[in-house]
Specification:
about 170 residues, single chain, about 45% helix, 6 helices, Nucleotidyltransferase, domain 5, alpha/beta
């Protein structure tokens, strides 16, 4: 299956399995997971990137651990909706993931990938960090510790789940 915006691939979402939400950056990949009913997203981990083959092994491990049936990947768009270099980098990552992930791990042997607009997810996460995280832990420290990235993945995945619930 080809990756596409959530709106265009929503009808083919795998049912009864969890989904992984990914916030793909140059240095990290934030990861979140949802329940099998696809209602609630939870932050899981942050992968500190080295090279794609190692990133893939960790993603495959998480797919197996959570019996995930697909991916929601945040797509960084400009505020006017245009795609830039970061969006192309995320699309390239998704294409590599689709091509190289072990199909045996996924239901039906195919990869379901949806892109979710991630505009303002960082603003949401910064608000969460400011409000709920120990005041001694600044935004910079939260980013260094990987907290920001896995929370961003949660925000991205939850917004996709909310869309799916309404459509």
């Amino acid at each position: 299956m080809r990756a596409g915006f959530l709106k265009s691939v929503a009808k083919s979402v795998p049912k009864g399995v969890s989904l992984l939400g990914l916030d793909v950056g140059q240095k990290t990949i934030g990861v979140a997971v949802c329940d099998d009913a696809q209602r609630v997203a939870t932050p899981v981990t942050t992968i500190f990137r080295t090279k794609f083959s190692k990133d893939l092994k960790e993603i495959e491990r998480l797919v197996e651990e959570f019996c995930a049936g697909g991916f929601v990947i945040g797509l960084p768009l400009h505020m006017d909706g245009r795609e830039g270099r970061r969006a192309q980098s995320v699309r390239d990552f998704a294409a590599e993931l689709e091509a190289q992930i072990s199909k045996d791990l996924l239901p039906g042997g195919s990869v379901w990938i949806a892109f979710q607009d991630e505009r303002l997810s960082t603003v949401t996460v910064d608000g969460i960090v400011d409000e709920y995280v120990d005041k001694r832990k600044t935004r910079v420290r939260a980013k260094q510790d990987g907290l920001t990235d896995k929370l961003a993945a949660q925000v991205i995945l939850q917004s996709a789940l909310d869309f799916l619930a309404l459509n």
